Amino acid sequence: MSMPAALAEVVSDFQEVDGQDKLALLLEFADELPALPADLEEAAMEPVPECQSPLFLHVDAEDRSQVRLHFSAPAEAPTTRGFAAILAAGLDGQSAEDILAVPDDFYTDLGLAALISPLRLRGMSAMLARIKKRLK
What we know:
Elements: H1 5-15, H2 20-31, E1 46-47, E2 56-60, E3 68-72, H3 78-91, H4 96-100, H5 118-135
Antiparallel strand pairs: 1-2, 2-3
Helix pairs in contact: 1-3, 2-3, 3-5
Organism: Mycolicibacterium parafortuitum
Protein name: SufE family protein
């Protein structure tokens, strides 16, 4: 499996905890979702309608060797914010080539399938798919 080191570390963190501790870790990530830069407004971002909660993303690939990812999700949507924060922590600042090489189903290695509905997990898949689409 080809993953940038930062994303592999996030996956490893999830693999080291069990059961409800995985949800707690996801909520920790949700709390750490970086704020949008001052010059980026949600209205200029791409919506991800596959997510259960409102989520917007912006892919800045002007420098393909260091892609910048920005996400916006409401505080009332901790699962969605957690997924976005995982992608931000693992992929922000990586090269376009490295991001495109990430397996589409990498999130299954987080071990959240027993705790989170498939519909919600599809949201993370959709976020990654949209990022990759922007990079192609």
